[in-house]
């Protein structure tokens, strides 16, 4: 009986059917515990009493559990009579395909089979219907239901041919198991099979990719089996573009004599990887003529020899062009949970740096070693960049507001602050150039600072008359006189979805537009050869997950031709327009496969203490942060659009109202009476605004040397607490009448970073986050003091929130919502942290007044699931040059 949407199998909720076959029915389902979509392969009720079916079902689970390969669909577990598997999005393999694409897929397919064969596993049902191609171009082999780990086929009761996969008893001596058109001759004859049966099927699939036609496609199954056993194979049908080595490979795979067939699929992989690297055979020398023309031939031969000598001399004197190198793709597993928060590759390609782990710190891996080393003291890092010599990493510390530009030595030592206040109007992207200066973006402007530190120099600022919002992604061009950068314009609601690519002349200050109307949040330049002025501009398209490239002459500052896509399926930083990728000067590319959805970025949901979601009717928007009003009926929302704007959503009426002008919003907190919102706009000030927008905002205070961020109001409405850019906490009295020049009073010092302070409901305690132990943890300190602090979290934590009765303290630890029982009177006591639920939500959240549910920001359904897989492409520049010829 087919399962319907909403049916539950344990923690898995059926969403929709995907397909059905002889070995089970496959459904798309939602894992309600881990908040991800999976594929469930369910054995029908009618097969529950069939021991052979059950044995095969169990064997498939065991086979998949033994395999861990990026080109094989992963099994997550078993639930009753269902296999819980990776949900592979994409399309089934089909031809005809361009030779280059077909060989790319064939290489991945061979790699997957090699991994299975190394474990003694034979698939036995390899066919296009069991091969999925993801949007990122990744091959996934599916359905190991007929796989065997023994060279002897099992015996059992006959199966009915109720799917294209044929399983039937042929003779007393053997069984046919597989799909008729893709079976090896020994399978079709009912003989025992081994891994060479998969090699035959691989050859049939490769044939179909190259020709677009089925190799064996008879009128009936019997006719098809007869063709498999005897029909001649016309290898001339392979296209003329098929390399000779691949023709030979197909012939060896499709040899009916199993003893002469290719013996190991790894040989196929090697043959494919060598395509294009073989030396060309010299042309045969012409035969000398006879008779009277011999003399003319001698003169011609002498002239030819002289010409050849001249060519040889010219070739000897000129530089020898480097030989094309083979493009190699592979995947690397990073030993840190969660998708990397940033990626960077050293200039020489020897090191990969990424942000990961619960503390979101920097990790570095030497590519010739297996060890991955964390860099302590880098919590909250993002936008990584190696120094030209690869011995330092510069990064943006996003754990405080405003951000800081820092650098840290790989050899060890504390991080050094280079720029103390990186304003976040516009993304704080940065680049360490060959001139040993660091280019970065702050408050929308392009800045430069020596790598040793000093006073930042402003290079260029956005021009409002041209609808320019901010500049980002600066890159120093060869010669050190021009800076390539991206411009986000007001016509674009999100950075990276529109604007221009431009160049800035550092000597004259002149700006020149190079490409108009492009997505360029991640922007790179590469010369085609070392020392050449001809090269490529490469940029990331946020809403498609693609890399685009255009030929560029750096000496003339001119682009040649139009941008074209060169790589699909690149994931961005957690739903941002910045690509998770890094490229070395030698052309080693590292990226996280995935891409981004094109729809609205976020929705609001209620999540109860068991993790059950209930949607909020607020429209999808690019929500950045939220705070519930004291009565729980309104939500203050910071939304990314034309800058950052502050909005209020009324839960009862279902209305969304804007409170601030373009680009002037900030994280807002409510006064206890729910009448006003207090926030810090992009300038260094704290303002108060009526929640009903009846009056304009009023300035409460202005800071001279740093940005201040308010985070909580005391329960009596008399004080505001917050942090400044150096990480110290302050309190500020709220004026009773009209706002005035309120004074900030220090509360806790900045010897360690302290942020996200929150008053307890009785006003006698303050919860906050600090990194004084090297990790981000939650603490509670008495207010106004004196007294010691209390450590609340045990394994990291951010964003503390009190329950309205003061008996619980909540915080986030990665994807986990944590709760701690606390007592605030007569003395403070805290219990052991416990996990309430786990799910993928944005960092900002709030607690309902009754403490029974949490308001969360939910990423889009198309957002990528966490992954620890990084795709590496060696010699990627060779592929780039083939796709986009350089400027002449």
Mean pLDDT: 81
Number of helices: 9
Form type: globular
Give the CA-CA distance, first to last residue: 65 Å
- Beta-strand content: 35-45%
Total beta strands: 60
User: Tell me about the biggest sheet?
Assistant: 6 strands, antiparallel
User: Could you give the order of strands across the largest sheet?
Assistant: 1-2-3-4-6-5
Low-confidence spans: 151-176, 280-301, 307-321, 491-497, 596-600
Fraction of residues in helix: 10-25%
Characterization of the model:
It is a single chain. With 888 residues, this protein is mainly β. It has four domains: 1-87, Phosphorylase Kinase, domain 1 (2-Layer Sandwich), CATH 3.30.200.20; 91-150 and 162-276, Transferase(Phosphotransferase) domain 1 (Transferase(Phosphotransferase), domain 1, Orthogonal Bundle), CATH 1.10.510; 328-599 and 867-883, Neuraminidase, CATH 2.120.10; 603-819 and 835-858, TolB, C-terminal domain (Neuraminidase, 6 Propeller), CATH 2.120.10. The chain has nine helices and 60 strands. The strands form 15 sheets. A six-stranded antiparallel β-sheet has the order 1-2-3-4-6-5, covered by helices on one side. Residues 151-176, 280-301, 307-321, 491-497 and 596-600 have low confidence and may be disordered.
């Amino acid at each position: 009986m087919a399962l319907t949407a909403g049916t539950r199998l344990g923690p898995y909720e059926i969403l929709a059917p995907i397909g059905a076959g002889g070995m089970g029915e496959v459904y798309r389902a939602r894992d309600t515990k881990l908040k991800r979509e999976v594929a469930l392969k369910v054995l029908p009720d009618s097969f529950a009493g069939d021991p052979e079916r059950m044995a095969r079902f169990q064997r498939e689970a065991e086979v998949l559990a033994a395999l861990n390969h990026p080109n094989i669909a992963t099994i997550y577990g078993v639930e009753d009579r269902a296999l819980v598997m990776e949900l592979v999005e994409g399309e089934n393999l089909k031809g005809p395909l361009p030779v280059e694409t077909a060989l790319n897929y064939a290489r991945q397919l061979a790699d997957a089979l090699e991994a299975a064969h190394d474990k003694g596993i034979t698939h036995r049902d390899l066919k296009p219907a069991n091969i999925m191609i993801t949007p990122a171009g990744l091959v996934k082999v599916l359905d190991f239901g007929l796989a065997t780990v023994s060279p002897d086929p099992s015996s059992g009761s006959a199966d009915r041919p109720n799917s294209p996969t044929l399983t039937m008893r042929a003779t007393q001596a053997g069984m046919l198991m597989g799909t008729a058109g893709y079976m090896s001759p020994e399978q079709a004859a009912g003989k025992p099979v081994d891994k060479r049966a998969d090699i035959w099927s691989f050859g049939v699939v490769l044939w179909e990719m190259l020709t677009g036609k089925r190799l064996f496609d008879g009128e009936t199954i019997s006719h098809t089996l007869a063709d498999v056993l005897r029909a001649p194979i016309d290898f001339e049908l392979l296209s003329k573009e098929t390399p000779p080595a691949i023709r030979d490979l197909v012939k060896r795979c499709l040899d009916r004599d199993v003893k002469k067939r290719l013996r190991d699929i790894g040989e196929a992989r090697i043959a494919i990887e060598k395509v294009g690297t073989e030396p060309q055979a010299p042309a045969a020398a012409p035969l000398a003529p006879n008779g009277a023309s011999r003399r003319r031939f001698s003169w011609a031969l002498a002239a030819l020899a002289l010409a050849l000598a001249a060519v040889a001399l010219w070739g000897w004197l000129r530089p020898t062009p480097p030989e094309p190198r083979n493009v190699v793709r592979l995947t690397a597993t990073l030993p840190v949970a969660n998708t990397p928060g940033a990626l960077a590759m050293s200039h020489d390609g020897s090191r990969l740096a990424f942000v990961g782990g619960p503390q979101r710190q920097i990790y570095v891996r030497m590519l010739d070693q297996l060890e991955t080393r964390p860099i302590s003291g880098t919590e909250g890092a993002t936008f990584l960049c190696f120094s030209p010599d690869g011995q330092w990493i510069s990064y943006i510390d996003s754990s405080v507001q405003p951000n800081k530009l820092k650098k840290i030595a790989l050899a060890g030592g504390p991080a050094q602050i280079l720029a103390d206040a990186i304003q976040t109007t516009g993304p704080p992207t940065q680049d360490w150039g060959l001139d040993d200066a660091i280019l970065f973006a702050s408050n929308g402007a392009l800045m430069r600072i020596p790598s040793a530190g000093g006073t930042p120099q402003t290079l260029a600022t956005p021009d409002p008359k041209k609808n320019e919002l901010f500049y980002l992604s600066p890159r120093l061009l060869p010669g050190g006189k021009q800076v390539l950068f991206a411009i986000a314009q007001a016509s674009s609601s999100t950075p990276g979805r529109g604007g221009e690519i431009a160049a800035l002349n550092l000597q004259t200050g002149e700006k020149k537009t190079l490409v108009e109307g492009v997505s360029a949040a991640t922007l790179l330049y590469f010369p085609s050869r070392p020392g050449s002025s001809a090269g490529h501009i490469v940029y990331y398209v946020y809403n498609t997950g693609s890399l685009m490239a255009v030929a560029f002459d750096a000496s003339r500052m001119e682009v040649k031709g139009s941008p074209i896509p060169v790589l699909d399926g690149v994931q961005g930083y957690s739903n941002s327009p910045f690509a998770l990728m890094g490229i070395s000067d030698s052309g080693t590319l590292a990226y996280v496969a995935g891409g981004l959805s094109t729809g609205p970025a976020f929705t609001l949901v209620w999540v109860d203490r068991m993790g059950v979601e209930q949607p909020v009717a607020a429209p999808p928007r690019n929500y950045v942060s939220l705070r519930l009003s004291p009565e729980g009926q309104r939500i203050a929302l910071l939304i990314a659009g034309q800058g950052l704007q502050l909005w209020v959503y009324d839960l009862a009426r279902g209305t969304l109202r804007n409170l601030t002008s373009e680009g002037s919003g900030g994280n807002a907190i409510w006064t206890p009476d729910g009448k006003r919102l207090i926030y810090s706009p992009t300038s260094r000030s704290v303002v108060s605004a009526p929640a009903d927008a009846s009056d304009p905002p009023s300035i409460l205070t202005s800071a001279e040397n740093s940005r201040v961020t308010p985070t909580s109001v005391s329960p009596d409405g008399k004080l505001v607490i917050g942090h400044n850019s150096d990480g110290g906490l302050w309190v500020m009295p709220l004026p009773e009448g009209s706002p005035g020049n309120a004074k900030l009073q220090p509360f806790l010092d900045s010897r360690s970073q302290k942020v996200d302070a929150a008053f307890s409901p009785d006003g006698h305690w303050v919860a906050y986050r600090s990194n004084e132990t090297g990790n981000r943890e939650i603490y509670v300190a008495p207010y106004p003091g004196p007294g010691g602090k209390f450590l609340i979290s045990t394994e990291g934590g951010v964003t503390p929130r009190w329950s309205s009765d003061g008996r619980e303290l909540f915080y986030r630890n990665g994807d986990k919502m944590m709760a701690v029982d606390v007592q605030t009177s007569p003395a403070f006591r805290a219990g052991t942290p416990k996990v309430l639920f786990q799910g993928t939500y944005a960092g900002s959240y709030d607690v309902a007044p009754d403490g029974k549910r949490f308001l969360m920001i939910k990423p889009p359904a198309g957002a990528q699931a966490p992954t620890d897989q990084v795709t590496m492409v060696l010699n990627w520049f060779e592929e780039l040059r083939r796709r986009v010829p350089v400027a002449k």
